[in-house]
Structure formats: structure tokens, C-alpha cells
Design brief:
By secondary structure, the protein is an alpha+beta fold. Among the domains are: about 1-200, tricorn interacting facor f3 domain (Immunoglobulin-like); about 315-450, Neutral Protease Domain 2 (Neutral Protease, domain 2), CATH 1.10.390.10; about 455-545, Sandwich (Immunoglobulin-like), CATH 2.60.40.1840. The strands form 9 sheets. Strands 6-5-9-3-2-12-15-14 form an 8-stranded mixed β-sheet, with no helix packed on it. The protein has a 5-stranded mixed β-sheet with strand order 17-18-19-21-20, covered by helices on one side. Strands 29-26-25-31 form a 4-stranded mixed β-sheet, with no helix packed on it. α11 packs parallel to α15, α14 runs antiparallel to α15 (about 680-695) and α18 (about 735-745) runs antiparallel to α19 (about 750-760). The chain is globular. Bound molecules: arginine and zinc ion. Arginine binds near residues 305 and 828. Belongs to the peptidase M1 family.
Length: about 900
Amino acid sequence: MRDAEPHPVRLADYRPPAWLVDTVHLDISLHPTATRVISRLALRRNPKGDATAPVLLDGDGLTLVRLAVDGTPLAGGAYEASPQALILRHPPSDRFTLEVETLVDPTANTQLMGLYRSRDNYCTQCEPEGFRRITYFPDRSDVLAVYTVRVEASRAEAPVLLSNGNLERSGPIPDTDRHYAIWHDPWPKPSYLFALVGGNLSKVPDHFVTASGRPVDLGIYVEPGKEARATYAMDALKRSMRWDEKVFGREYDLDVFNIVAVSDFNMGAMENKGLNIFNDKYVLASPETATDTDYAGIESVIAHEYFHNWSGNRVTCRDWFQLCLKEGLTVFRDQEFSSDERSRPVKRISDVRTLKAAQFTEDAGPLSHPVRPESYHEINNFYTATVYEKGAEVVRMLKTLLGDEDFRAGMDLYYARHDGDAATIEDFLAAFAEASGRDLSQFALWYSQAGTPRVSAQGQFDPAARTYRLDIRQETPPTPAQPEKKPVVLPLAIGLIGPDGQDLPLTLDDGRNLPRHVIEVTQAEQSFVFTGIDARPVLSLNRGFSAPINLSTNLADADLVFLAAHDRDPFNRFDALQGLAFRILKAGAASGTLPDAAPLIEAARLLLADSTLDPAFKAQALAIPGENEIAREIGSNVDPDAVFTARRALKRQLATALGTELEEAYAALAAPPPYSPGAAAAGRRALRNLALDYLTSGGAPEAIARAKAQFMAADNMTDRFAALAVLVQHDTPERAEALDDFYRRFVTDPLVIDKWLSLQAQIPEAGTLERVKDLTLLPVFSMANPNRVRALIGAFATANPTQFHRPDGAGHDFLVDVVLGLDAKNPQVAARMLSAFKTFRQLEPLRRASAERALRRVAATPGLSADVTDIATRSLS
Ligand code: ARG
Ligand code: ZN
């Protein structure tokens, strides 16, 4: 465990590396507790670096065995070595070979960074700073080298040996029980893209031929027995490869592309060159074990990691401040892929829901930071919704501003110019500025300025002048270390809808034209006057959520009902309904009684009845905002119990008012077997299960019985899980029976048990904290496995606001105990769990004080990791 560094790393302090590495030869002999790593580095002084700097290699917990320079062993006084660094103050020349032998213990590696074991397999995770836990190296993303890797292991223990690139040779090692494989990756890469796998794994093979005719061997490696569960992931991989050729002109560039699924993984997956390593949650699926949401998640993560081969690997990041350069862009690319493969509007709605739930909340609290931060204490804490999801929104805005053609030209120029480079956000923007001829200097603020802009739009129809005037103001609230904000560029897609429900032609009074029906706001206050308007139109602004902002308008409830029924932009139809729900829920939570919900009910009824609409879209539009979303809209002095009560009351009102329609939907949407994970069938299930949820919300015995019947009869996990999720909301014998049944069915399937843990952690009842504590004692739970921890503890802390924020503080105390216990073993996951406090300042005073006490208890604990110290310190600042 590392202690918190006293000084942050700063973007402004970036210096080019003093030494470069041209080639790396690794010889890795796998052993459970003493893996031997011999590394031969061809080092060369960087002509663009400090000409007098010593050779400084990073390490983390390494044991040095032997050191040689140009083949000659180095004597003790010739270098300085510690577990954290290896320094040669007097290199023999400006170009030499350094050979380093180290020992590492993969079994003791509970951080899951570097070389570790998952079940009995060996695997690696090197991004961002894990390679230094395998061998001494200039472990920074701007040192690119060509790797050749020889790996050997016991044949019985690790029949499969994989690394990056193409396989050169493999075979037995005579007179031993060991064997070896040599892998060579011709593409220079930074150390964070190195990967190695050894274990007893089954290969699911397939084949792909790229557009220009290169044959590629595809393999997905899974635990023996799980092969059938990898077929969907393989299908998603081939579709991703084709899509990147078609949409971005990017082809695959090696003879082999392998994916390995492991059970212990800190994040979702990792794009190591030619050897992606995945959390098995994002590979394994079968109709009986995975929900439609799981299938969609697999499709998008498989695509995401594959797309990194260009956006991340061929063009990588100069330093970790540029993380959004690869992550924001790659999230944008995987979102576009899923939109093309499924329904674009539904994908957009669900992405915006995620953005608001994860990023807007982050941006509104003490952990707010720019898409490109300017300093950090622990880079692992910056794999955030802001870097990923807001980073993707910024790329999307660029496309909206530039239009499809110039956007693609900018992408092509970026790749052409920086292929093989470690690039920056400035490089990225310069390519688009050049390709489009536009000045993007103000746009660049989206990368440096934190916070979600608040935008107000006031529309005024003038019948005499036949004009519609739109006054826009923008303001970005202060965030940590950024008290003053500048106006940003807002591309706002707009429609003015006439009384007949049709969009009016848009003509501005000053002759400015409106390419693609987008107004560009660049100032703090700006007005737009549309001419030739004959009757009062209804404003539809920020269509498709074209800018990631908090928008308020002077639209009346009746206007929102109109938009919900008539807007040709599906996102804003959805948003109009959500807007109506928010108005009711906020007032209800504040006063204890719900105001009249008639306008919302009316709009929902029309939408439900509209047979031209996709069921998946209806399911999104009719799902009322969650408790966290409501809390975010309220913004301050939030009482989670009041939010919960208001939400439950509204849900019941809607269920009562729309009972007949919901019954009809439930009956009509039953899908005939067999199960198919496709978007159309998934959409029907989503709407049917939403209907089930509404119809059961009052807790009537017949309704509970129906949910139980669906649970028992389901032939797929989507329907079984949806029924269970409904049942756990009600304290009935059926709940206990169903939970029991589910456990017995799936006790040997950890990914399914995660669903069971997670649902119980979300029960909004006083007994839940005790239940969660009891669940941690079960053999199916383990604090050492990140998926288990996220499923149980993460769900409790982030998806059960009434119980996590219990007024007696017991929920807060529990989380702190978990975090402190976990920190010594896996600081990354511990820090993630602790970040559940990121919204604590929006709570009412009693709960806010309890959360603050809990955070102070963490901060006051000696010997914490840098990860947890950083989150605790920033949360309290
Ligand atoms: N680059 C990976 C991705 O595709 C994330 C890896 C981050 N890992 C970590 N331990 N912080 O998103
Ligand atoms: Zn990524």
C-alpha cells in the first residue's frame, strides 16, 4: 500500500521523458508466489528530453534480483534500487541495454493491479500504473516500445499462455513439466497496454476478414464449461469490427484478436493490444442467466474495448491528464455503435439517464472536476463519469457543431496525423479546427471547466410582429478550485412546434442561418428572434440532449403535455414526461402531499396508447425518475424519506389511473419463446415488466401472486429478475419464497448471485442494513471480489438512499467500516465505495452531519491508501 503523496501531479509540470525504450524483451516464468520476470530494455536518451537526467524507472513493491548493463552485471554502488524506483545516475552511454530481473508474488496481489491471480488463472491489469508492479520501467504512456514476450509455466497449471500481438512460437520445455509461448507485438505501445494471461481456459474460436482482406483469428477465452455463454460476445465483437470499418474507416491490424474473461476485475474491461481482458460480467451471457440489460452491456463493452484499438492504442495519450482523449472518444464511439445496432432514440435516452445519474451528481458535489483535470493525487480516482460520459458528450457536441462530414474529416486527420503518437486534447481539437476551418478555442473550455452549465430559456411569442423571441442565459456554478466560470459554447438543437404538431420553418431575423436546426449560444446572455411565426408555437429545445446542461424553460404543464404527444424529437417527448413528473415529485417531497398529477397521467395515457411507438421507448418514457434523480433535481436540503414517499405515491396514482391500459399492455406484450436478446423483443419485455411493476405497486394480493407466477414460469432471466425486483419491494411471504428459490437455482453462478445480492441491498425497509450485514457472511459473498462488493455494498450505498442515509447514521457507519477494512486489500475498490458520499452535501442537515462525521472518521485513520485518502479529503473540502 502506498501512502498518500504530499504533492499532486500537475498537468503544467509535464516534461517529455528523458529516456525512451525502443524494444522490450520480457521473459516471464509464472509461479504462484514467485514469478520471475527478466526484462531487457533497449534504452535511448530522448533528444527532446533533459540531456543530463539519470535513468529513472518506476517500480511498485518489486524485489530486485539482478541488474546488467550491456550484458555486464552491475555492482551495488552503480545504481539505487527500492521497491518504488530504480535509478542509474551514470548511464554508460546514450544508448544501452538494461537487463533487470525481479520477483513478484501474484497470489499476494489483492489490489488486482499488475500480475495477479483470478480463480487459478494468471492475468494482468496495467492501466494506468500497474506495469511497474511487474518490472521496473518508465511507466508512463508517452514511452512507446515494441514488445516481445516469452512466457512459461507449468503445463498442468497454465495450458494456455497469451500475450499481446501475434504468436511466434510455442512448445514444451524439454525434461520439465513446463511449456512456453513467444508473442510479438509489432506495434509500439505504452506499458499500460501490456497484458499476459496464463491458465486453464477454453477457447471459443472464430474468424474475421478485414475490409482489405486481412484474416484475423478471433478467440474468447473462458472458464471450461462456459463456452456457450460467450457466443453473444463473439457476435458483438464481429459486428464491432465491421462497424468501425464502415463508420470510421478503421481496420484491425494484427493476425490475432483475443479476449479473456476473468472473475476478479476492478473495472469493466481493458483494451490491451490484441489481448483484451474482461470482467466476465461483460462476456458471459445465456438467456437463463443474463438480462436484456446484461446483453446490451456486453455488446457495448465489447465494442468499447475493440474501438480502443484505434482510439487509445494506435493513438494513445501523452499523459494521464489526457485520459478523456481515449475514454470520452471511445465511449462516444461505443454509444454510436449501439445506436446503430439498436434504437437510436432509446439508446440516447438511456445514455442521458446514465449521464445525469452518474455525472451530473458528480459535477454537483465536492468531487467535481474538469473532463481534463489539471492535477491529481491518485489517477485511479479519475476513471470517472466526468472523464468517460461527459467526455463522450463533448465529442458529440463537436459532431453536432461541425456536422457529419467535417466531423469525420477531423477524425481522419487526427488519426492520420497522430498514428503511433501519444497525443493531447490540443492535438485532437486542432485536427477538427483544421478540417472544418472553425475556431474551437472557446469550445476547448468544455475540457478545462468543471460543472454543469445552468441554462434558462424564456420564449415569447409576439402575434403583432409575428415573431418568437428566445432569451437564453447560461451560468456554470462554482466548483472546487474554480470559483469563476466563463460562458461555454452550447449547440442547442431546436424546434418550434405549431398548433398542428408540425415543426415550423426556422428563420432568424438577423439573417444568421441555422445549419441542422441548431442554435449556437456562446455568450452569457443571448437572444434569438424567429420571424414569420403566425401562431403561438411550443418550444422544443436541446433536442436529443444536444448539450449536457441543466435546462429550465418557461413552458407550462400544458406545453409539456403537448410536447409529450407531438414532439418529433423522441428524446424531448421523453423529457417532457420526465419534466412533468419532476414538477409533481419535487412539490410532493417538499409539502408531503402530491399536487394534481392529471396532466402527467393524461400525457402518459396518450403515449401508452400510441401504437406507432416502440415499446422500448414507451418503457423509458413511462418510468418515473428514480430517487437519486429526484434528489438531484431538488438539489439541497434533501430528505430521502420524503422523496421515497412522494415517488411511491405518484407511482401508485399512475397505476390506478392507467390500470386498464397497463393490464392490456401486460397481456399483449407477452413474447412467444424462444428468448432472443434482440432490441425488439427486449423492448417488449421492458414495457411489459414496467407494467408489472406499476400493477404491483399497490401491493394487492392478486398482483403479488401474478408477479410470483411470472417469477416461477419465466424461461429467461429478464422476466425472472424483473418479477423478483417487483416482489422484493413488498414484505410478503412470496418475497421470501422467491428469494429462496432464486438462491437455490443459482447458488453456483456468482454473476447471477450478484443480482440476488443487489436486489436485497435495495429493499427500502428498516431491516435492510442488518440484511446486508448478514449477506456479507454468506459463503457466496467475498470482500476480495470486486463484483460481489459492488453488487452488495455498492448497491446499498448508491441505490438505496433511504437506508444508506438512515437518520441514525448506521448506514454511513457501515460503509466506513467496509471501506476501512477493504482499503489494505484493494484500495481502488475501497475508494470507489467511499465515493458514494459524493452527494452528501445535498442532504438535510441531520443526515449531512452524519455523513460528514463518517468521512472525518475515514480521514482520521492512519495508514490509508492514496486512493481512499484522496476521496475522503476531496469529499470534505
Ligand atoms: N481503459 C479501461 C476502459 O476501457 C479502463 C481501465 C481502468 N482501470 C483501472 N484500474 N483504473 O475503460
Ligand atoms: Zn475505455
